[in-house]
Amino acid sequence: MELTDKVALITGGKRIGAVVAAALAQRGVDIALSYARSRLEAEQAADAVRRAGRRGAAIQADLSQPQACDTLAITTAETLGGIDILINMASVYARRPFDDLRVEDWDASLDVDLRAAFLCARAAVPHMRKRGGGRIINFSDWIAKSGRPRYQGFLPYYVAKAGVIALTEALALELAADNVLVNAIAPGPIVAPSDSTDEELTAVAQATPLGHWGGEGEVAKAVLALLDNDFITGETIRVDGGRHLK
């Protein structure tokens, strides 16, 4: 895909999403970023896009609500003129022991991590068809891509991210005739949680064959690689430094 003057919608404007937005802006893409509560971070990411000479917009959307996905796509298309790229990054990541799990916890993960990815795709595809095709990149997780859970306490998250892989494959088949390519990225040790201890940081690095955390830029490179390719669809690409090999 030629990226100059394309329009991308990124759900999630913090941390990795902000870096991906900046990388796309450098390639000539206009960006809309959605946020639920992190308005400041999303606005800062949109400002960075504008400093790169592209149009940037931050749009509030509670993606746990189905109608919000439709509204987000419509607002993006009205603000920036269409949608060529959808990057589903919004996620709920919380640890809770099995015996403490509530229905609300299950719904929180499944509604945002999986259902919203489908609903945003459904809302964005009509706009892509008008422009002759497009790209959808979903976000799974290296553990889900490995096909087996490794850490207790993340049951809804694991199920949702495994579902994202299935969603990616099925959407790729459904949308191939529309020239909409659908792939997923499964990040590994990219950015440590803010409350990580030095011991935890070191342990993860040592468990990763390449010996270090990846950093947000490695995800941005993977996104660009998938966008540049016109013959990959239905794939889930791990960006984990070989973490799945141990």
* Number of separate structural domains: 1
Query: What is the assigned CATH homologous superfamily?
Result: NAD(P)-binding Rossmann-like Domain
User: Under CATH, the topology is which?
Assistant: Rossmann fold
Shape: globular
CATH architecture call: 3-Layer(aba) Sandwich
Q: Please report the number of helical segments.
A: 8
User: Strand order across the biggest sheet?
Assistant: 3-2-1-4-5-6-7
Look at the helices and sheets and give the structural class: alpha/beta
Largest sheet: 7 strands, parallel
CATH domain class name? Alpha Beta
SSE topology string: EHEHEHEHEHHEHHE
Q: What's the rounded overall pLDDT mean?
A: 96
- Rg result: 17 Å
Approximately how much helix is present in the residues? 40-55%
This entry's quaternary arrangement is single chain
Question: In terms of topology, how is this protein built?
Answer:
Layout: E1 7-11, H1 16-26, E2 30-35, H2 39-51, E3 56-60, H3 66-80, E4 85-88, H4 103-130, E5 134-139, H5 142-146, H6 155-175, E6 180-187, H7 198-207, H8 216-228, E7 236-239
Parallel strand pairs: 1-2, 1-4, 2-3, 4-5, 5-6, 6-7
Can you put this structure into words, describing what you see?
With 246 residues, the protein is of the alpha/beta class. The protein has one domain: Rossmann fold, CATH 3.40.50.720. The protein contains 8 helices and 7 strands; from the N terminus they run βαβαβαβαβααβααβ. The protein has helices spanning 16-26, 39-51, 66-80, 103-130, 142-146, 155-175, 198-207, 216-228; strands spanning 7-11, 30-35, 56-60, 85-88, 134-139, 180-187, 236-239. It has a 7-stranded parallel β-sheet, with helices on both faces. β4, α4 (103-130) and β5 (134-139) form a beta-alpha-beta unit. α1 crosses α8, α3 packs parallel to α4 and α4 runs parallel beside α6. The protein is globular, with a radius of gyration of 17 Å. The mean pLDDT is 96.
